[in-house]
Write a structure and sequence with these properties.
This protein is an alpha+beta fold. The protein is 38% helix and 29% strand. It has two domains: 129 residues, Rossmann fold (3-Layer(aba) Sandwich), CATH 3.40.50.10330; 160 residues, Sandwich (Tumour Suppressor Smad4). It is elongated and about 60 Å long. The two termini are 37 Å apart. 41% of the residues are buried. The N terminus is likely disordered.
């Protein structure tokens, strides 16, 4: 049953001042039931102590998209806020639903990398993130679009989506051992020889580029970590995205790019270009569909694939600037 603050508490909050918007929480923890219960208890404890109205929106197995849509619908109808508690996939689903329903998004990041939350200066511990959410107000944040599908951190075509898809297939068959995932990645690197024909629109100028992979970023923190030059990174968030293009499909070039990214020096790779853009269109000579990764989730999309900044920003619940953590 959804947890809802009792009527007496609501009445007391009304007497004390304006009623704060209700929170519609989607909690999706992939690490197990015990961890999920721990996070839920931390959230409930902070919200109950603050006499804040909230509900946990139920999630049926494999139905995270539907749960986020339901939470956004309720938030839109009641003037409330969608709150995503989970990893990058949960945040992405909730962001798409919030944009579609024109309602704010609150974040309690509980994933592996949490790059979107880190970039915004939000804490990663559930109770602390909930306390900060109580002090937050909606602010516009740039997000990307690929064929009108939202991405918060990055989207890509070519080698990287193939790596993700092959890794998940191997994990499903043989388990989630790290060495198995590494072997799957090496196998993909050896077998991937495809090069894409890219139509790149850069400030109104059109050019064609052939590449093995293209990565479009909307997160300064991630781009800095892999070593993209500052002159590119600093323009992100001002109506522009960053593109990182790997031209060569040769095994040696792919392996060097991988190691350089891990060491934070990808920008120095001769086979890699990086630049900012407003719109980028990707076409391929063969086929009508292509595999695309958005915030780590792999989907099939109709060609051509168009990357751009979303026409309107996402409203994200952020605390006062002085309360935010430095991006890390």
């Amino acid at each position: 049953m959804p947890a809802v603050i009792s009527d007496p508490a609501q009445a007391a909050a009304t007497r004390a001042g304006p009623v704060e918007p209700e929170l519609f929480i989607v909690l999706n923890m992939g690490s197990g039931a015990a961890r999920k219960d721990e996070v839920r208890q931390a959230i409930e404890g902070e919200l109950t102590q603050a006499s804040r109205r909230y509900r946990f929106v139920p999630i049926a197995p494999g139905q995270i998209v539907q749960a986020c849509r339901e939470a956004a619908r309720l938030a839109s109808e009641h003037g409330g806020i969608v709150v995503a508690a989970g990893g990058d996939g949960t945040l992405n689903c909730a962001a798409q639903a919030a944009l579609a329903n024109d309602c704010p998004l609150g974040i309690i990041a509980q994933g592996t990398f949490n790059l979107f939350a880190r970039e915004l200066g939000l804490p990663l511990e559930a109770a602390e993130a909930t306390r900060m959410l109580l002090r937050a107000r909606p602010e516009p944040v740039q997000v990307g679009w690929v064929n009108q599908r939202t991405f918060l951190v990055n989207a890509s075509v070519g080698l990287y989506p193939k790596l993700l898809a092959d890794r998940e297939e191997v994990k499903h068959r043989f388990g989630r051992r790290r060495w198995i995932a590494m072997l799957a990645a090496l196998k993909t690197m050896v077998q991937w020889h495809r090069r894409l024909l890219l139509d790149v629109e850069l400030d109104g100028q059109l050019k064609q580029v052939r590449a093995a992979s293209i990565f479009v970023g909307n997160n300064r923190l991630q781009l800095r970590r892999v070593g993209i030059p500052d002159e590119v990174v600093e323009q992100i968030g001002d109506g522009r995205l960053a593109a990182v293009v790997m031209h060569s499909a040769r095994l040696g070039a792919k392996l060097r790019a991988l190691f350089d990214a891990l060491l934070g020096r990808l920008g120095s790779q001769e086979a890699v270009d990086s630049f900012t853009l407003r719109t980028l269109t990707v076409g391929a000579r063969r086929g009508r569909r292509i595999t695309v990764a958005t915030d780590g989730e792999v989907v099939q999309m109709q060609l051509p694939v168009r990357f751009t900044v979303a026409p309107r920003p996402l409203l994200v619940m952020l605390p006062p600037p002085g309360d935010r953590l430095p991006p890390r």
